[in-house]
Amino acid sequence: MERELGEETFSSKLRTLLEQEDKEREVREAEEQEIADAELHASSFVEYLNTRHLFDALFANDYDGKDLLNMGEDAKEFYDEYEEQFIELCKQIFLNGQEQYHLRKEEEDQFLHCVDEAKQYNQEESIKHMEDFLGKKAVVFYDIRGIQNMLNNNEITYEEFIDKCDVYVLQYDAMLHEIWKALMKLELELYEQLEDVNQTFEHGMTELVNNFIESSQALFSQIRDLEVNYAENIGDFALKYQTNANLNEEIEVHEDLKELMADKDFLHNALATSHDMHMQIIDAREDELINKARNWLNELVENLVKDEVKRNRGKILEINHFLDIQREEFEALNSEYTPDVDTEGVPSLD
Predict the structure, then answer these.
(1) Residue from 134, 185, 187, 143 nearest 164 by CA
(2) 272, CA 20 to 30 Å: which among 36, 88, 193, 343?
(3) pLDDT digits (tens, 9 = 90+) for 257-305
(4) How large is the angle between the packed helices 158-247 and 264-337, nearest 10 degrees?
């Protein structure tokens, strides 16, 4: 009996532990998804437009606008209709932003693939040229060591040795010049190719961003139309409500409305201020979207130029460094095997 009770207790604790782990995993996955969504939405410039965030911002500090909702069911109906249509348009902007983001991402992925292929091919061709040069260099070095042995064995005179060394100096100089031309030609071809690819990518991305901005502006324009319509409806109703309240003392005016309804000019000013506040918030969110999209595009284009200039300069330095090493190794060989030969006579490519 005790054993069965113990097993049941253990099973109960195990179930509790597993349930706790499941809950923790769900919370963790939800948090990870929220982070991923936030990053995606930021990249598409439509943060929080899939929620009621922008609509709530209209009335967050619009105390008079909120007080006017106390005029009755008609005012509440205007508000509810406005709210529903406003949030729906915000969601359309959000979905459009997501769609346009994926189009830009696809364009960027294709661009990067094209660039990587061009760089890879160029690198492979450069390696072929360098390996061919190193193979020829090994033969030259072997031959120089051979004539040094011939001199040491008195098979040739010192003058003959010098003459042969001069031939190898000229040959090696020609080899250096040829590898320099080949590597620089490849780099120039890649530079021009990437310049064309970058320009094509820039034009395509500019068109996508402009399309996104234009479609978003059209939807924001509809949101402003909603605000104008709401301001007119709530304004007309408020003026009628004020007139009826002043003419009929039996109408019970809500405490929050008494100050607004006490003076016609005061009510006009409150309505105008409320409308202006709403329009400024809508315009600010539209400006934020447009500025973020254009700043992103400008930064992208600037980085394309800077990155390519940096890559090109780095490649040229790499080529010159490779040639410097080959020249230094040849001069070191001359110093090792022909101490009496003037190694300063080795031609350079400077």
Answers:
(1) 143
(2) 88
(3) 888 888 889 999 999 999 999 999 999 999 999 999 999 999 999 999 9
(4) 170
Q: What 8-state DSSP symbol labels residue 231?
A: H
How confident is the model at residue 343, as a pLDDT?
40
Length in residues, the chain = 350
Q: How far apart are CA 270 and CA 238, in angstroms?
A: 11
- Whether 350 is covered by a domain: the verdict is no
Answer yes or no: do 15 and 105 share one domain: no
202 close to 304: Cβ distance less than 8 angstroms: yes
Q: Which residue range is the domain that position 313 belongs to?
A: 48-345
Cβ atoms 132, 186 nearer than 8 A = no
> Within this chain, do residues 21 and 122 fall inside the same structural domain, yes or no?
no
Q: Tell me the pTM.
A: 0.78
Whether residues 110 and 212 share a domain: the answer is: yes
| 230 touches 162 (CB < 8 A) | no
Helices (H), the chain: 2-43, 53-60, 63-67, 73-152, 158-247, 258-261, 264-337
Q: Are 264 and 183 in contact (CB under 8 A)?
A: no
Q: How far apart are CA 151 and CA 339, in angstroms?
A: 13
Q: Choose the weakest-confidence range: 43-52, 80-89, 213-222, 311-320.
A: 43-52
Range list of β-strands (E), the chain:
none
3-state secondary structure of 342: coil
User: Are 147 and 341 in contact, with CB atoms under 8 Å apart?
Assistant: no
- In eight-state DSSP terms, residue 255 is G
Q: Find all residues with CB under 8 Å of 39, minimum gap 6, and list them.
A: none
Q: Do 166 and 338 form a contact (C-beta atoms < 8 A)?
A: no
Please give the helix or strand (H or E) that residue 30 lies within, else none.
Answer: helix 2-43
**Same domain, yes or no: 337 and 250:** yes
